[in-house]
Write a structure and sequence with these properties.
Elements lengths: L1 H22 L4 E5 L2 E5 L1 H53 L2 H10 L2 H4 L1 H14 L3 H14 L4 H14 L3 H14 L4 H13 L3 H6 L1 H4 L6 H16 L6 H11 L1 H4 L2 H13 L3 H14 L3 H9 L5 H12 L6 H13 L3 H14 L3 H13 L3 H15 L1 H6 L11 H7 L1
Antiparallel strand pairs: 1-2
């Protein structure tokens, strides 16, 4: 309706102007040097309109190639985005060949070359085509200078997943030259050193692990792996242990797994009293199975006091299998055989483990119960390795009575 009103208004204005123009067409004289131009007012208006249209036409012709290119680019970008989405879908569904074609020949790389080529490299590797993988990675690396560190990270991860830890290490060394201490590189370097069984390389990363881009669980596991190898060395001394502990950093030192390893190393070096204090303080702040088991293994100044401490914790954690196992260890250390047996049987009833069965079997052997000790060792072996435990079963096995049942008969 609004368009109709405007059209009606235009017709009225046109009729009004035509009336005045036809009544008196006017006269226009233009002189420029020796040139004289004479025309009516309507003629001038028509000339100006024609001149305007000519100028607009010339401008449109000048802009035409640019407009064509812009529209073509817009179409390619839209098609590339659609193909990128489709390729990602095929990649998730496992159709890696189709995904690779769409990513590299379907226009997906026009709008997002870095993403497209990296995804294409993953698709190629999934097909076992490592040469094509490296080709797409090279194109991704050259597509955008700002994305080169990310490409190197993706390349190292792909090489590691493909079982090429040496190649992954070389790639990460290139990244280290460009971006020293890159958090993502540190996380991958740790995985690479573990895959290469490079204890020295893993240990060298300890001061940097706290800043690495990885979950706390993975970070703590890597730090524990590094320390476990170093702390198991026969020539480990107190000075070297203190140096390592200083390198770990405060955040990793709070990890229960790492702290328990440190305490065991202290005890091994004759610093059991220090280890016991460290574990006790940590357990009073944060409860952890690693710390609980470590508390039973270290030898403090007074094992009887350690047992009392463990029993005080049992008032709160009555059904903690690890704490019951620790109380059993400390009872054995103080030659309280009955207590040790009760604690072990309670622990086994809650959560059977090869360690608890091994300790139970040794206790039964010391108590001159060889048949029951053999059953306990066999049960522990079956838990640790079901096939080995099955092979060691006698033709008519004497079943070990459930510890919980025995405990209830006492």
């Amino acid at each position: 309706m609004r368009v109709g009103l405007w059209a009606l208004l235009a017709l009225l204005l046109g009729a009004l102007l035509a009336h005045f123009v036809l009544e008196d067409r006017g006269y226009v004289l233009i002189t420029l040097r020796s040139y004289v131009v004479e025309m009516s007012v309507p003629g001038l208006l028509l000339t100006l309109v024609a001149l305007y249209l000519v100028v607009r036409g010339i401008a449109a012709l000048i802009r035409l190639p640019r407009s064509v290119r812009a529209r073509s680019l817009e179409r390619r970008t839209r098609r590339g985005g659609e193909n990128l989405s489709a390729a990602f879908k095929h990649l998730i569904e496992g159709d890696t060949a189709r995904a690779e074609r769409l990513l590299t020949h379907g226009g997906a790389a026009d709008g997002a070359p870095f993403v497209s080529y990296v995804l294409a490299a993953r698709a190629a590797q999934a097909q076992g085509a490592r040469a094509r993988r490296d080709e797409w990675l090279a194109l991704a690396y050259g597509a955008d200078a700002d994305s080169q560190p990310a490409v190197l990270l993706a390349q190292a991860e792909l090489e590691l997943d493909a079982g090429e830890p040496d190649a992954a290490l070389a790639t990460l060394e290139r990244l280290e030259q460009r971006r020293p201490d890159h958090p993502g590189a540190v996380a991958l370097l740790a995985r690479v050193h573990r895959a290469r069984h490079d204890a020295a390389g893993l240990n060298a990363l300890l001061p940097r692990l706290a800043r690495a881009h990885m979950s706390a669980q993975v970070r703590d596991a890597l730090a524990a792996d590094a320390l476990r190898i170093e702390l198991a060395l026969p020539d480990l001394g107190s000075e070297r242990l203190d140096e390592l502990w200083a390198e770990v950093g405060a955040e990793l030192r709070a990890s229960p797994t790492v702290l328990a390893l440190h305490a065991r190393a202290l005890a091994r070096l004759g610093r059991g009293q220090e280890a016991e204090r460290e574990l006790r303080a940590a357990l009073n702040t944060s409860w952890s199975e690693d710390l609980v088991l470590g508390y039973g293994e270290v030898e403090g100044a007074d094992r009887a006091k350690q047992l009392k401490q463990a029993e005080s914790w049992l008032k709160t954690y009555r059904e903690d299998a690890a704490l019951l196992l620790t109380a059993a260890r400390l009872s054995i250390a103080t030659e309280l055989w009955g207590k040790a047996r009760d604690y072990l049987e309670s622990s086994l009833a809650l959560a059977p483990s090869p360690t608890a069965y091994a300790l139970y079997g040794k206790l039964l052997a010391d108590l001159d119960e060889p048949e029951r000790a053999a059953d306990a060792f066999r049960s522990g072996l079956a838990l640790a390795s079901p096939s080995a435990g099955e092979a060691l079963k006698p033709d008519a096995p004497a079943q070990l009575a459930p510890p919980a049942a025995e405990a209830s008969m006492r």
